[in-house]
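Workshop exercise sheet. Pairs work together: one partner reads the sequence aloud, the other fills in the structure field after running the prediction. Swap roles for the next sheet.
Pair: D.N. / O.F.
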Amino acid sequence: MGCGCSTPTAECQYTITTNPHDDTSPHYHNRACQVFQPLEVNEDLLVGFKYVIWLAPGGVIGRHQVQCQDMTLRYVQEAAKIFRFKVFVKSVDNLGGTIANNPADEEKRFYLDMLSQNTKEDLYRLWNARFPPGNRSKLKANSVDGDDSSHNKDYTPQSIQSRISVFLSTEEFRDTPYSDIKNNLEILLVAAAAQHNQEIPLEDYMKETSHARGENSMPDVMPQSKLSAQFILQSLAAFQSWRHEGPVVPTICVSILPGRIPESAFSSIKREFLPAYEELKKISKARQAGGRTDRYSLGLLSFGPSGSSEQGLQWRSWDDEHKSKEDVVDHLHVPQENFFKNGPGEKFGTKILLGPVDRHEDAKTNLKGMNHGYVSGDTTDGSSLTASEYWNCVCRISTGQQDTGKHEPK
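Structure field:
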């Protein structure tokens, strides 16, 4: 594996071993080479997937966790430069740009207006103007027995719009003060607005300033409502991918999450995926041979303070719940202090990028990630983990294995 530099960097100079041809020694490579090199063995698999990183919604994670999220994005950005796989970023918060005059953005504007209302009367006024009571056959067709749950009796998920319609017509909503029930409705309204948010190439996203990214452009809603809305959208995407029999682009969605959320919110998120898992069971039964499906997989990456035994346990329980062909979820929890101080370790990339589809990576324990190579053992903060440093590792010259330029950015 080459790393070609004609003039060794300071980091390279003090890490070279006495035997320049002993490329099995970790001390022979600079830090970037050590951390990114384990991905080389899976290069062909990496380029076969589309990656979508779901950013933690604004307010869901704290300041240190946001810094860990930024470090993760920089790491994946550099890995994608080296190994040429495609990565996109998505969020329920609007990722910048203006709302144009097209049907999708018009609908998005409508649900944002719904979110900004402070009374039930104003909500009804807006809803009835867009969906007149005598013209709701399309919405009612997807509701079952007035039930406002996420799915009907045969596990077909309801559309978000039909769930909102049913919610607004329930006796509970009519008779309960709006302030007492607003948060339950706003989850659906956030999901309805955010379903039109576009995926943005990671490279483009990283070029924007934090202001231009528009990370907190949603109206003033509960952060947990945005996280719940995110998983509503992911559950629908999973259902459609697992139900669709035609060609698909295999997708791995990596969600950056807090280490712990309210148990009621976690249970609600799990319920949203019931219809999707029913479809997954059908696929698993139909496929007599072969491994797990990889049409749509979920990586859960949580950051949280060290010292709490509860951190990451909820997400890990989801990871452990389904086995064999139905195991399409993988979780990694990382103590935020260690990650922010030391940066990603050698096993971090393989775990977050391929854990959902590689049973060997999925099987590895992760709650003690700081001791298993997911966090660096060096106090480097990850700033040296760049594609340029990777290509400039002195090992490529010392061993006569200069890269031919196949990967090196031009």
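Discussion prompt: The two ends are 18 Å apart (CA to CA). What would you look at next?
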